[in-house]
Design a protein that fits this description.
The complex is a heterodimer of chains A (about 700) and B (about 160). Chain A is α/β, with parallel strands linked by helices. In chain A, about 30% of the residues lie in helices and about 15% in strands. Classes of the chains: A alpha/beta (about 700), B alpha+beta (about 160).
Chain lengths: ~700, ~160
């Protein structure tokens, strides 16, 4: 044990640099005081004077030194010399790397068309506008983000019903219904605010297949079998309609398809819903009455849990329809329509992101646009990247020859066997990353990125603050920040695009322009301040003047967008509930597969794959736990701590049993993102929601055995 | 907690997120060191799946049991801050303090000297909060010096 101050006494002067974390999403990115000595961070703590984060940090941010100075950080551009997957590389210069990349990409564009090159952004959002612009300018429609399996399908459900998502106004709501989210482990910077509401006695209804620290504080916890959300929502809708608890004036004036929806809901009487979902009828009837009886009431949905199901978008359409029935859309205390700003953060601070991206058209359709036509309408600027390994393997309808990936991790895709063999087959793969991941080991060229503490970066927060600190330290080794790498590659490709020929500071100032701020002004004011210009403040019920941005101009409980493709693609126009084995009957064999696996929940110390390399974090808890209910454990003769094997129709991995009554009987649960117990091996690559292309991570059949 | 302490835990707010644990490690360890861990976060489940969480380390009791049992008076209370401190020179490694502590806080170095949370005494003297308290995303940990009329002190709102 060393006291930083004691070690400090032997070295140079210690200076405190204001900076920020970048490990989780752009809503948080908490302020950090980095204590720097001789160019190295010797301590890090939350910045108490940062008005956005107020000194608090989560465990990832608190341990950020082990992220920055991780032994697995990539410090030099590397070229593969061994077999793919083996991880043998030799250093090359940046110039050599850029030249090689430019020569290869130009070659594929000439021989196979620009669409044969895919540009992939992993979880990070901060470099996405330049990466999208690079793909567009290069001519490829195949710009892919982690939105291919996170948050976009959930927004698609809102978009199909209302024409756009609306945020829960928790503070002003009388009742809050949280549909499948653990707020305490999701965006932890909101924990204090949630406690304020709970301690005031505000009633929360929480739908969650697991018991969590949050569900036990809820007025009503609806613990459902994973993937049965649609049936539960339709059951609640039925109660609301039968008991005439819905907002009749709103429905009459603003809703399209109410009759059809009501007929669908009537197929879900309480007995049937109880049988499908496992939730006692008196509980969800009470929840329906509580949510519909209060006005305003807010509905807090979540990015992935419900839509990680092969009927996920339909299930979430049924859920958000509850906000339509009750007229809680676009009102204070209900769900408010708030502008989506820079890097997907909602709020009233403008940016030039859209102007930066511009508008492009391409000759070839993006990957997934023909397979998932509703996705193509909803998110025309992004490919549905879950098909990436399929396009690589099958070369149909056109081949993918090269991938330029930034923070791309193969574990995002279901069926790692399939994905890794696709990366092996790929002609040319460039991986830009912080750490030497398993994915990087399949790359031809690996480029070292740097962390948020080694760069400057504009943040526009939901609370209105705009933040941009200078780098706290120089980038480690030869690492560079992603946007610099994107601009350098654009130059090597001779792309004559002024938006890619900017300096980084020019880029940031371009984005900031509508705020009236510049990087220089923000940094002269300590790195965080309010903008000079904001968008007009929130106004309720904008639909009264403008209608809803849907084809009918109304709330669509029966979707006219889905209707266009219903016949050809077999889609349901009203949000019918379907179980996973109704959508994919090949998995209906419950004798071979008596259990169900649910993956992908958050833990506070992990952010997908990214903090497993930090020793302080990794050693806090066992990382390969398979949660199973005591009833199932008893049947299988398994005790906590036993080595077990979980097998699905797709694959098999080892795990450590954790017997816990927090999971539903018949359902086992594992966390994702761990290279050493990778749950993606368990999932089938074809097991996708036909509407969104999202993998069914929350609901796949399995069996569990004790290892001998 | 029924024991009066300077670092206070509201177990109703703790979710065992480990922010306090890692903040404490960062404060005391070089980047490649692992401890000893002076703060732990625990999560206990009942047979029905009810979850109880706590962040535990030295809570700096108003009436420290460890201090009372220490045969060499190696444990003492800092006069200025009231934080409970250890003089490793006087510690004989008898572990009486560990037996007495309701929070299981004392740890021992390889040389069998007791080591525990010092309450970030240097920070407190500078008018700042202990790091675990400052970092806690749920405000489950708070810091109250005795004889300040129960008001929370320190600069953090």
């Amino acid at each position: 044990m060393t006291d930083a101050k004691q070690t400090g006494s032997t070295g140079g002067a210690i200076t405190v640099h204001k900076t920020c974390c970048g490990i989780c999403n752009a809503y948080s990115h908490c302020g950090i005081d980095a204590y720097v000595q001789d160019g190295r961070i010797i301590r890090a703590e939350g910045s108490v004077d940062n008005p956005h984060s107020q000194g608090k940090l989560c465990p990832r941010g608190a341990g950020i030194r082990q992220y920055v100075y991780n032994p697995e950080r990539i410090l030099h551009p590397l070229k593969r010399v061994g077999e793919k997957g083996e991880g043998t590389f030799e250093p090359i210069s940046w110039e050599e790397a850029y030249q090689l990349i430019a020569d290869k990409l130009k070659g594929y564009r000439a021989d196979f068309g620009p669409e044969s090159v895919a540009f992939v952004a992993g979880f990070s959002k901060w470099y996405r506008p330049p990466l999208q612009r690079l793909a567009s300018s290069f001519g490829s429609p195949n710009y892919i983000t982690e939105g291919s399996c996170c948050q976009e399908a959930h927004k698609m459900a809102w978009w199909l019903v209302f024409g756009g998502i609306a945020s829960a106004d928790i503070v002003n709501a009388q009742v809050v219904m949280i549909w499948s989210r653990n707020p305490f482990y999701s965006n932890m910077d909101n924990n204090r605010a949630f406690y304020e509401q709970l301690e005031k006695g505000k009633p929360f209804i929480v739908v969650d297949p697991r018991k969590t620290s949050f569900t036990q504080k809820a007025a009503i916890h609806l613990q459902l079998k994973p993937g049965t959300d649609g049936a539960l929502a339709l059951g609640m809708a039925n109660v609301i309609i039968q008991e005439k608890l819905y907002d009749q004036e709103f429905v009459e004036h603003y809703v399209h398809g109410f009759e059809e929806f009501a007929r669908l809901a009537a197929e879900y009487p309480p007995e049937r819903v109880e049988q499908i979902t496992g939730v006692p009828r008196e509980l969800f009837i009470r929840a329906a009455r509580l949510y519909a009886g209060a006005k305003p009431a807010a509905l807090l949905t979540s990015a992935s849990p419900v839509v990680h199901h092969v009927n996920g978008v339909q299930n979430y359409r049924a859920v958000v329809s509850l906000a339509a029935l009750t007229g809680n859309y676009d009102i204070e205390g209900g769900n408010r329509v708030i502008p989506s700003g820079y890097l997907l953060v909602t709020g009233f601070t403008p940016s030039n992101e859209k102007e930066y991206l511009g508008h492009f058209t391409f000759d070839a359709p993006a990957m997934g646009h023909r397979e998932f036509p509703v996705w193509a309408e909803f998110l025309p600027e992004q490919a549905q990247g879950m098909l990436l390994p399929k396009y690589i393997h099958e070369e149909k309808p056109y081949p993918i020859k090269a991938v330029l990936g930034f923070g791309m991790n193969h574990m995002m895709w279901p069926d790692s066997t399939y994905m890794l063999s696709a990366l092996k087959k790929l002609d040319f793969f460039v991986s830009v990353d912080l750490f030497m991941t398993e994915t990087c080991r399949y790359a031809d060229i690996v480029l070292p990125a740097c962390t948020s503490l080694e760069r400057s970066d504009v943040k526009i927060f939901a609370d209105g603050y705009v933040q941009c600190f200078p780098p706290a330290i120089e980038p480690l080794g030869e690492s560079r920040h992603d946007i610099q790498i994107i601009f350098d590659i654009a130059k090597a490709l001779d792309l004559d695009d002024p938006h890619l020929r900017m300096s980084y500071e020019e880029y940031m100032n371009f984005i900031l322009e509508p705020t009236g701020l510049t990087v220089a002004e923000i940094q002269a004011n300590g790195g965080i301040m309010r903008p000079h210009h904001t968008l007009p403040p929130y106004q309720e019920r904008k639909y009264r003047d403008h209608g809803f941005p849907t084809p009918t101009g109304k709330v669509e409980l029966a979707s006219t967008v889905v209707e266009k493709y219903a016949q050809e693609y077999g889609y349901d126009v009203v949000p019918q509930y379907r179980s996973f084995d109704e959508v994919y009957p090949q998995y209906a064999d419950r004798e071979t597969w008596p259990l169900m696996i649910n993956t992908g929940s958050r833990r506070p110390q992990y952010m997908h794959t990214r903090t497993y390399r930090m020793k302080w974090i990794r050693e806090l808890e066992p990382n390969d736990l398979l949660d199973l209910h005591p009833q199932d454990a008893e049947k299988l003769g398994i005790q906590s701590g036993d080595r077990v094997r979980i097998t699905t129709p797709s694959g098999s991995i080892g795990a450590t049993a954790n017997v816990t009554a927090t999971v539903f009987p018949g359902v086992v649960h594992m966390y994702h993102g761990n290279e050493k117990a990778n749950t993606s091996y368990l999932m089938d690559h074809d097991f996708l929601d036909p509407l969104s292309g999202y993998p069914g991570y929350k609901n796949f059949p399995c069996r569990v055995e004790k290892e001998v | 907690m029924t024991v009066g302490t300077i670092i206070k835990l509201n177990p109703e707010r703790c979710v065992a997120c480990y922010a306090c644990v890692v903040a404490c490690l960062d404060a005391h360890c070089a980047v490649d060191e692992d401890g000893p861990m002076l703060r732990r976060a625990i999560r206990v489940e009942t047979d029905q799946g009810e979850i109880h969480c706590a962040s535990l380390g030295c809570m700096h009791c108003e009436d420290p049991k460890c201090m009372a049992v220490c045969p060499t008076k190696a444990i003492y209370r800092d006069r200025e801050t009231q934080l409970v401190q250890v003089d490793p020179g006087k510690c004989i490694g008898c572990h009486s303090c560990l037996v007495a502590c309701p929070f299981g806080a004392p740890a021992f170095t390889k040389g069998n000297k007791m080591v525990k949370c010092d309450g970030c005494i240097q920070r407190v003297k500078e008018g700042r909060l202990p790091l675990c308290v400052q970092t806690c995303p749920s405000k489950a940990l708070t810091f109250e010096l005795p004889r300040t009329g129960g008001e929370e002190s320190g600069p953090n709102p």
